[in-house]
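Appendix B. Raw example, untouched.
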Amino acid sequence: MTAAEVTLCFLLRDTHGRQEVLLGLKKTGFGTGKIVGIGGHLEAGESAARAVCREVAEEVHVRVEESDLLSAGTVDFVFPSQPEWDMCTTVFLATRWQGEPAESSEIAPQWHPVRNLPHELMWADASRWLPPMLAGERLAVRVVLHTDNETVAEYVSQSMV
């Protein structure tokens, strides 16, 4: 079985000299109840950039142009006890978009200070790779989860140049 190709996009803004990131409370599907990035699966023939623009529009009702995406790297998730959950994730940042984020049936968006992310409400691995990516580091990350599908068994990160 091959890993699913997925994308994530983190919208960033400055508010009163403080950088904020748009995250969302997952309301349905994989990760329900967790605070997550905005994104999802690639459709047949779709590039990661095109997919993330579509997903952002569907999930939080804003328009991001492919030309405004900044590559942040990749995160490969391995679930040994649930291999059908394995994912190869392409991560993007964006500082430009059109519209105001609004709730959808899947995501309730909320702005969070980059320096005070809600790690206790996120997947356990996010505290390791998300802060450096938001700070501009380009990383290739591999996360292997324990059999509980929650805690991290193995974490490997390499800088992408």
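End of appendix B.
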